[in-house]
Design goal:
Number of helices: 7
Helix content: 10-25%
Order of helices and strands: HEHEEHEHEHEEHEEEHEE
Number of strands: 12
Largest sheet: 8 strands, mixed
Distance between the termini: 23 Å
Radius of gyration: 19 Å
Strand order of the largest sheet: 1-6-5-4-7-8-12-11
């Protein structure tokens, strides 16, 4: 994939939009999942989660370096670009937002243009990140895991191909929020341990959850933490109930006769 041809850079020219023009463009690009403020216009003021994702951002922004000067950022599943724009406002030298949805990318490009922020956007899904052939200082992976049929593969790809240092991770969670402190191994005859509510579990959604057919897997807390560790990420801080700040370790904790996959 030729990123140079698939991407658009914004912010080179000052925004010349009037409030009325922004309102009309927001309407034409809707519906929006991110409630952004563009020239005083809110894109999703009636969001069912409230002022989202600004409300969530305020709960964990303290855990991310305020000065990202000289750093590169990859925002996976960027949607309308809220987090990509926040990273650029913190001085990141290069920000790339990727998403598999053209409508979200159109929203993100317009938002970055109105805010006069130089951000790159490209159509790509998480399984294609090896094609970037580049590692980023900060990788944002928020609100994506539970939409994937192959979530652990995605985390392995992030570790091996695009994360240089920090991973900002978030996933919807259901089930127990307790932490698991079980044994490293169990005999084949052991079955009761799997009944423990804190045992790492992923709930499979065969049809829909919250009306969305792209919700495939919903982990509990201990499952999220175990998957991150297994994929080679050290959890530095649980900055918010669903948000983890992680550092990439050199090796994934995978013991297998077949080696790392």
């Amino acid at each position: 994939m030729d990123i140079a041809r698939q991407s658009i850079f914004w912010g080179h020219l000052p925004s010349m939009y009037t409030t009325e023009q922004i309102q009309e463009r927001v309407r034409s690009l809707g519906p929006w999942f991110h409630n952004l403020r563009l020239g005083g216009v809110e894109t999703a003021p009636e969001h069912f989660l409230g002022d989202y994702p600004a409300l969530k951002w305020r709960n964990f922004e303290h855990a991310i370096p305020r000065d990202l000067t000289g750093k590169s950022v990859l925002d996976i599943g960027c949607n309308a670009g809220f987090y990509a724009m926040e990273m650029k406002r913190r001085g990141a030298s290069r920000v790339l937002g990727i998403d598999s949805d053209d409508e979200y990318l159109a929203q993100a490009r317009f938002a970055a243009e109105v805010n006069e922020l130089d951000i790159e956007f490209a159509r790509m899904n998480v399984y294609d990140v090896p094609k970037l052939q580049e590692k980023f200082d900060v990788v944002i992976f928020m609100g994506v895991l539970y939409h994937l049929r192959h979530p652990l593969l995605a985390l392995d790809l992030l570790h091996d191909h695009v994360t240089r240092d920090l991973l900002i991770f978030q996933s919807m969670q259901r089930g127990s929020d307790g932490q698991w402190s079980g044994e490293q191994d169990y005999p084949f005859t052991e079955t009761e341990v799997f009944e423990a509510s804190e045992y790492p579990k992923m709930f499979f959604v065969e049809h829909r959850y919250s009306g969305d057919w792209t919700n495939w897997w919903i982990p509990n807390r201990s499952c999220v933490e175990a998957m991150l560790r297994s994929s080679g990420f050290q959890i530095v801080e649980q900055a918010e109930p669903e948000v983890y700040i992680c550092r990439r370790l050199d090796d994934r904790a995978l013991e297998s006769p077949y080696g790392n996959v």
